[in-house]
Amino acid sequence: MINLKHSIMLWMLLVMNSTTAFSIDYRKVFGNAWNEAECYVCEHHEKWKQEFELFGVDSRLAEAIVFPELIRYSMWQDMIERSAVNGLYVMKGREGANFSIGRFQMKPSFAEELEQAWNASPLAQEYGFYFNLANKAEARRSRIRRLSSEQGQCRYLAIFIRLLQQRLPQLQQVSPQERVRLLATAYNHSFLASWQSLCRLQHERLFHTDVVKTRSTQLYCYADIALSFWQSNSQ
Questions:
Q1: Best label site of 5, 45, 57, 66, fewest CB within 10 Å?
Q2: What are the helix and strand counts (H, E) for the chain?
Q3: Greatest CA separation for the chain
Q4: C-alpha to C-alpha distance for 106 and 52, rounded to whole angstroms
Q5: For a pLDDT cut of 90, what percent of the chain falls above it?
Q6: Cβ count near 118 (within 10 Å)
């Protein structure tokens, strides 16, 4: 009887936690930061859409995946990190500097992984271009130039989505909502993550908007934020 009672209590706690996670009003939580990010997406939607559609990617899906990054984007912080990457990364590679840069907060290592996967996929031949993967300063400089423009980041994001859809065919078998969650989790966690890892991590609270994480830092679920934005903008 005791075990049954404990099992019922545990089940109720799980249900309550799940309900709480999905009932958070992120627009209210992030306030002006959410509104500013949403306005930015609205202002750039048509321009970004052209880039995403070049790769057959739904623009609303792509925007939702990076929306949490737009919320916490800091112009001042980006300027510092971009300067470091421009110098140290170009000279020494990811061992020298591997900071996230740009509105979509992409790291040079992320771009490297995408470029390697692209060159090895049938998509490279289909689209008729390959990336220069040489371990040389000029190749790294070109990579930073791409990462430093919103056009370049849109194209990297589109490539990210296409490559994941190719590597994980399960994405086509889930609901649109689940697809948003899993792709957002991969973007926040790792492009190379397994299907099992993405399914496990999609409900984890690991995302924050602080410059430096401390004990008082509030953690959020990246996939929940992405889905919330997608649901309010994909109608």
A1: 5
A2: 13, 0
A3: 70
A4: 17
A5: 76
A6: 20
For residue 79, the one-letter residue type is M
Tokens of 207: 């995302």
Q: List Cβ neighbours of 8 (8 Å cut-off, separation of 6 or more).
A: none
Tell me the per-residue pLDDT of 64-85, one tens digit each, with 9 for 90 and over. 999 999 999 876 778 878 888 8
Q: How far apart are CA 1 and CA 76, in angstroms?
A: 59
CA–CA separation, 108 vs 206, rounded Å?
21
Quote the CA–CA distance of 69 and 226 in Å, as a whole number.
10
* First CA to last CA distance, the chain: 49
Residues in the chain: 235
46-49, long-range: CB < 8 A, 24+ apart = 48/150, 48/154
- Residue 195 carries which side chain, given as an amino acid letter? W
